[in-house]
Amino acid sequence: MELAIVISVVAVALVFDFTNGFHDAANAIATSVSTRALTPRVALVLAAVMNFVGAFLGQEVAQTVSEVIQPGGSAVHGLVVVMGGLIGAITWNLITWFFGLPSSSSHALIGGLVGAAIASASVVSWAVVIKKVAIPMVVSPLVGFALAFLLMWAIMWIYRRSNPHQTNRMFRFLQSISAAAMALGHGLQDAQKTMGVMFLALLTGGYVNPGDRLPIWVVAAAAGAISLGTYAGGWRIIRTLGRRIIHLDPARGFASEAVAASVLYTTAFALEAPISTTHTITSAVMGAGATRRLSAVRWGVARSILIAWLLTLPAAATMAALAYWLLRLALP
Amino acid sequence: MTISPRLNAAPHLTLGAHLSADEGACLMEVVSQHAREPWSDAPRCTHPLLAHVARLVNDAMSDTGRQSLLELAPTLVTASPENPATYPRIALACTSVAMEHHATLFLAHLNRAAFAELKRETIAHANHRTGGITQRTRRQLYQQGPATHAAEEAVRATCTLPQPGRDEVLRQLLNAAVDAAELSST
Fold first, then answer.
1. I need a labelling partner for A219 at 20 to 30 A (CA). Which of A136, A248, B12, B139 fits?
2. B2, B3, B29, B33: which to substitute to probe chain A, counting the most A Cβ within 10 Å?
3. A298 has pLDDT over 80
4. Is there a contact between A164 and B42 if contact means CB atoms under 8 Å apart?
5. Beta-carbon pairs below 8 A across chains A and B
6. DSSP state of A120
7. What is the reported pTM?
């Protein structure tokens, strides 16, 4: 019974990971494609490969995610709590997609785990939730915006007397590096959230011990799922529906990607914090664009990010609590 | 100081959003210029859902076909009816056009949902009922959710058609959305 639930949790977590890559594919490729630094096909393959590689680079974020809750009771009960958390997160993601509500799938996952834990009277590590989730969630887009603005300002000042065509050519080349760096950062952050849930399931089931490194199959499975999702999502977007990308010149494209990548790495390695990659990349693009005109700051997008901050954690927690109670009825 | 190369003054419609006119323009950005509003791909002069359809069609069309959309710009400037029935009317129009060429289950569901919502709004309007908080919340969720999905799915389904017919159908889709908005303002 335990093994069956562990396998179910792992499978659902991998589906969550795939949909994460699918949904976020545009973030990974849009800026480079819009400046024509990369062709759509190259950008997509690069994003998929770098997402895969990025997933192998660290385990700190996964560790944080696995420490958010300590499911109580028996192993089976603990696994039901984790499953409830996952189902709550997925349900909230579906609701926000259907009704066009702002959300963050990363924080839906954390909210889901917390909600299921509260419903089951399990322990929630509130210090981890506040210091490593809530605060970085708010700070990372603000830092992304400010740094991208400042970097772009510096670039504009340094190259103020340069030939624009040569400068654009140079930054188009540099964008192939910054785009790869951003996709790497995306894989580093987002795959680890799923790995954290999978590790929590294995820990709860007694298949690993606290402090163990993530099993290689967990890392490879999460890396593969997010990479496949990115590839599948990217083609859908390129072929059938252009995501509303903002045309940036190559210098702004480079500035936004470089800053976004830096924030993703810093939060992953130094702060060990799971953050929203979408919010970070979006705010960096707005920051770089704001040096051209202030209306590049799409206040509607900024408002959506604010609503996501306020709504996601409690709403996903509520969904997870409901999911946990329903699962308890069905399972021992 | 700008690093971008300057483009010529005649509007050549391109894909996506642009920071300023000299970097290119999409259909809705041209509309914002016509309306003398601040440069934006979501000007206030155009109904939000109609603007969304226009942006989707702009991005989905081929470069050549996209230029034919310019003649719709003056119509889009004045297409902002306040009638709540506008959302389901536009959603119904888009899904109906798309289903004539490439019907999918999701499109059919969104088409039915639009019809049901339009019926609800028409009855409420006939009874002079604006609705309480539940009604208003439901309406808002419909507008943000299924209505928007209807526009996106209609364009997505149309994009599976081969060229050269695809541009023509996309154009029909936008025309149908414009007609639906005009019907709402009468």
1. A136
2. B3
3. no
4. no
5. 82
6. T
7. 0.84
